[in-house]
Amino acid sequence: MKINLALITSIIVAVGLVALGFTIFQISSDREQLRNELEGKTIRVVEDFYKAYFERVEQGDSLRYSKITDSVINQYRFAGIAVYVSQDSIVPLNQDVKPLLAPSTDFISQVISADSSMGRFIRINNNNYYVYTRLIQKADLPAAAAVFYTDAEYIKNLTNGIWFRNFWRWFLQALAISVVTLLIIRWGILSPINKVIEWARAARLGNFELLQKRPRVKFLEPLYKEISGIAKAMQEAKAVAQEEAKLRTTAESVWTPERLNEEMKVLLQNKMMVVISNREPYMHVRVGREIECIVPASGMVTAMEPILKACGGLWIASGSGDADKETVDEHDKVSVPPYENKYTLRRVWLTKEQENHFYYGFSNEGLWPLCHIAHTRPVFRKIDWDYYVEVNQLYAKAVLEEIKNEDDPFILVQDYHFALLPLFIKQERPDAKVAIFWHIPWPNPESFGICPWQKELLQGMLGADLIGFHTQYHCNNFLETVNNALESRVIWESFSVKVGNHFTLVKPFPISIAFTLKNYEAEPTPRQEPAELLKQHGITAQYMCIGVERIDYTKGLIEKFLAVERFLDKYPDYQGQFTLVQIGAVSRSLLKTYSDTVNAVEAEINRINGKFKTKNWQPILFLKRHHSHEEIMPYYKGANLCMVTSLHDGMNLVAKEFIASRDQNDGVLILSRFAGASQELHGAIIVNPYDIEKTADAIKQALEMPKDKQYQKMKQMRRMIMNHNVYAWASNILRSMASIQN
C-alpha cells in the first residue's frame, strides 16, 4: 500500500511540476509576445497620430491642442495623451490622463535627457500602462515631447487566464489518472504491470526473446502490441542512424560561411558586429602610376578575414598603405574585398610618432618579447606607454563613433595592441558586448610581472566581457597573473574574474583557418613535384621541405637551419637530395632586434650553404619577401614535409594551412611543441626545436615515413581542422559573447 501511495504521490508531484514549468514558460512567452505586439502597434499608431497633429510643430508652427479632443484620442485607442513642454509644464489633452502623469514623470525626464523617443511599461494605480514618449523636434522647443498612454492591463488578464486553462487542467487530469491508477493497483494487477515493465525494458534493450512472451491477460494485448511496435521502430531507427553515420560525412556538423552567416543572424539579431585590429586586412599601395590592393602578411588577418566575409560588419584598423587615404570615402571607409564588397573597413590614421612608440615601441619591443619566452629582453619606456594609451583612446573614439546609434553592439578586439581598449569602450557603452582575443601566448605571472604597467594592462583587458586565448594553459597563466596583481576575485570553477560588479569570462578558443567539407572532399588537384619546383630556382634535388614564417626571433629559424645542418651531417646520403625552401617575409625591420634577426638568418644560411653547396644543389633556399597565398600554395602542395619550429607561438596557422593544402593526404608536418597547434595536430611529429639532434632525426623520420602512415595521419589532421575551422572558432566566440548578460 505504501508503494502504491508513493507511486501515486510521485506521479502527482512530477506531473504537477511539469505542468507548472510549462505553464510558467507559456505565460512568460505569451506575455513577452503580447508586450512586443503592443509596443509595435503603439509606436505605429503614435507615428500616425504624430504626423496628423504634431508634425507641423517641427516646421515652425506653435503647439495647438484644440483639434485633439477626447473622441480623437479614443479613436486612436489611447488611454491618454499629454504634452511635455518643460520640467514644470505638462499639458494633459484629456481628463483621464491626469492621474497618470505623476507616476511617469521620471521616465519622461529620462527620455528628454536621452534625447531619444522610447517607451516603457509602467504600473499606475494597480493598472499596467505602456507609456511612449515621442520627442517633438523644434529648435525653439528643445525639451518638448508628446506622451502617449496605452492600457496594457489586458496582458495581465490574458496571462492570468492561462493558469486555469493549462495548469489546473493538467494537474486535475494527472490527479484523476493517479486515482484511477490506484484503484487499478488495488484490483490486483500489480503482476501484469511488472510484466509491462519487463516488456518496456526488453524494448529498450532490443531483447526480442522476452518480447515473444505474449500476455495471459487479454486486456494487455493492445499494450503488448504497442510496445512490440515501438521496439521494432526503435531498432529500425537505430539501424538507419548507423547506416547514415557510415554514409554521411557529418556535413551538418561542419561549419561553413553560410552556416556562420545564419548563426550570426540568430546571435546578433541585427546588432552591429565590429572587429578592431592594428593590421588592416587590405592595403592600397602605389605600383608605378597604378594603385594595387594587397593582403598584408598576418596570421590574424588570415583568421579574421573569412568571418567578416561571411557575416559582414565593420573592421577598424590602422591605415598603412601609401595609397590608403586615396581609396577611402569622407568617413575614412572603404568596402572590401575589392569587387566583392562583403564588409566595411574603416581606417584609423596614426602619426609617425604614434606608430614608432605605440606599435614599434611598447607593443613590439615591450609586450611581444614579454609574452614570448624566446630569450629576448623586453624594453619598456614611459614615452612608449604614453603613446600606447593615446592610440588605444584614439581607437576607442573611433569605435564609439561607429556604434553611437547601435543598440547592444558586439565588439571583438584583436590582440596585444589594444589591451586598454575594452575598458575604454565599456566605460562609455556598458551595453556593448566586448571581447578581446589575445593571439599571442600569455606568460607565467612572474614573467609578466616585470612590466611596469601590468595592472593597467590587466584592468584594461578585464573591461571586456570575454577574454579569449588559444589554449587553456594561456588562460590559466592569465588568471594566475590577475590573482597575483589585482584586487579581484578569480573564480576558477567558471574561469572568470570579478572586479567590482563586473565579471569577465576567460576561455580558450583555438583559432583555425577557412577549411570546410567542400575543401575536405574536393578532388585532388594537379601539383608540381619537389624536383620541378626546385628546378625553377636552379636546384636539383629529390626531396623538399617547406617553411613559411615572418622573420621573427620567436619562429626558431636558426634552430631549424641547425637541424637541417645536423641532418645532412648525420645522414650524408641525403646531401644533394634534400633542400629546405624557407619563405620569409621581413617585418618590423625598423627594430634592431628584427634587423639583427634578418642578418643572423642570412648569415646562418650562407654558412650552411657554403658548407654543403654543390654546382646544382644547396641545402637551404631562402625566398626573402612577402608571398601571397597563391604563390605559397605550390610549395605547400608539392613539399614532402613542412617544418614549424616556433620557440613560442600562440597557435601558428602555417601548420594548419600546410595540412589543408594536402588534398592527396600525404606529406608530413614537423611541429614545435611550443606552438599552440601542437595540442590539436596529433598526427604531426612533435619536436623540441632547441633539441637539434632529435629535430634532425625527425626530418629523417618524416622523409622515410611509409605512405600508408602518412595517409592515416594527414587524413586525421585534415578532418580535425575541418571540424574545428575558423567558422567554428568564430561561432564559439560569438555564442560565448551572446550568452553574457550585461
Automatic annotation (TrEMBL):
Q: Which CDD domains match?
A: GT20_TPS
Highest taxon of source: Bacteria
Keywords of the record, alphabetical order, are: Membrane, Transmembrane, Transmembrane helix
Tell me where the transmembrane regions lie: 6-25, 170-189
Q: Which InterPro entries match?
A: Glyco_trans_20 (IPR001830)
Q: Is ATP-binding one of the keywords UniProt gives this record? A: no
Q: Mind listing the GO biological process terms from this record?
A: trehalose biosynthetic process
* Keyword Membrane part of the UniProt annotation: yes
Which Pfam families did the record assign? Glyco_transf_20
Q: Which GO terms describe its molecular function?
A: alpha,alpha-trehalose-phosphate synthase (UDP-forming) activity
User: What family does this belong to?
Assistant: Belongs to the glycosyltransferase 20 family.
Cite the PANTHER family for this sequence: BCDNA.GH08860 (PTHR10788:SF106), TREHALOSE-6-PHOSPHATE SYNTHASE (PTHR10788)
Q: What is this protein called?
A: Uncharacterized protein
Organism of origin: Niastella yeongjuensis
